[in-house]
User: Fold this.
Amino acid sequence: MDREIPKSEIQKRKRRQFLRIGIIAVVIVAAFAFLFVSLRKGVKRSDIVLSKVERGSIETSVSASGKVVPAFEEIINSPIATRIVEVYCMSGDSVMEGTPLLRLDLQSAETELNKLSDEMQMKRLDMEQTRLNISTYLHNLEMQIKVKELSVNRLAAEVQNERRLDSLGSGTGDKVREAELAYNTGRLELQQLRQQLVNERQVKDAEYKSKQLEVSIFEKNMGEMNRTLEDARIKSPRAATLTYINKEIGSQIAQGQKLAVVSDLSHFSVDAEIADSYGERVSVGAPANIRIGKEMLTGTVSNVTPLSTNGVISFTVKLERDDYPRLRSGLKTDVYVMCDIKDDILRIRNGSYYMGPGMYELFVVDGDDELVKRKVRLGDSNYEYVEVVEGLKEGDSVVTSDMNDYKTSQHLSIR
Assistant:
């Protein structure tokens, strides 16, 4: 028959079984822990940029995109319809004031100017002839008045003689009345001639002024034609760099068509655009900072367009150092227009994460080796700092570098 197993042996076997199960459980837990740690996302400390939340002030600004442009640029258009005959300069050439750039065909314009000159001479001769005719006519009228005055004086004397003879009994009353009638008629005719002279002077003066006005208008037209012809001799308006020229010899040019562009490439300004929602915060005279690479230039808003185009407002920034060596025409820049100052606020460093005031999800350092995503409300900013409205406290460390690859993660380990 079977022998009964001692109780001590049974307990010993149970302890071995429990120990074996415990070891297996520890191994399984350790494996799961190792697998969790292995699969958990992490970032290298050297790959992130941290900013500590601090208390300070912010000179708030609104950001805009800008482009460096020459401070002076002039487009030279053709004043007449013609064709290009010769080209004297090429794009990129430095030109002095008055340097010929190209030659246009001006033969038809010069012929038209000569024709106008001949017509001008004829009009001047016609005006002189009118002046002489008026002078002769008025002089004859004045002589008629003088003759009439003599005739009236003679009639007045005859009236006196007839009255004297009548008083002596040698004359008659009819002769007196006849002499008085002739005298009065002569006076009226003299008065009529004098009034005619006044009227004729006014008429002839208006006629002569009309001729003068015709000549004056013609002279202005000729002067304008002369200026147009002079402008058609295409020259540089100032010392600058030729940035564009139409070099197609023989091509037909319409009136007003662009022929050349000269620019001062030693001095620059910045043309910028900003969303019209920020338009009221940009005004003439406002200080502005312009970022070129890692360097910052200062300037002042010198002009703001009053109208919004496609949701943006354009403005110009005049640079304090408009001859800065790194400035190049067409260079893209970031423009920050300064608005006001906020004191004693929480702030963090600005970075690519900031897209304007609102709610953000940022990674905050929790302990020594973990990042936790936190909802944070940010406010105004400038090119250096961003205002923290809520969600962070002074002393927190926040990741300000690009974390787009981890936007679905709530926790990250720091390796």
